[in-house]
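Data availability (excerpt). All sequences and predicted token strings are deposited with the supplementary files. A representative entry, Glutaredoxin family protein, is shown inline so that the format can be inspected without opening the archive.
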Amino acid sequence: MRYLLMLCLAMTGASATAETYRWTDPNGKTVISDSPPPGRTKSVLKAGANAEPGDNLPFAVKKAMEAFPVTLYSAAECTNDCKLARDLLNSRGVPFTEKAVQTQAEIDELKQLIGEAAVPALKVGKQSYRGFDAAAYSNLLDLAGYPKTAPYGSKPAGALNK
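Structure token line:
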């Protein structure tokens, strides 16, 4: 009995390392298989190979990210509020870019966006908010279609989390 259990475990481990392929068939159906697609199928993606950033994101997050990209403006002097803003975005699983405002050009960009050089500042699509207010941030993210909680296994975003 013990040998049978060991054999089953060994076979399970071998199948877990097999390659998987994802492609769209002529009818528009997405196919995921352990064997390559037949013929000359275009847009074949091997799991673990040549994956684009964000391929593991849920569909709703990808749609929101395309339509309403999120940028958090921060600065070295901004510790508490910038951390709270970053934590809120990460707790919701929002992919975002963090710009640490340092140069005069970045300060001018921020002034044009929100009217003054104040951090943190959040830009969601074409909407922006100056300062940190969890309710205001959540409202902007809700309107953009971002999830209320991060999906299991999501990784933190932002320049300072890498």
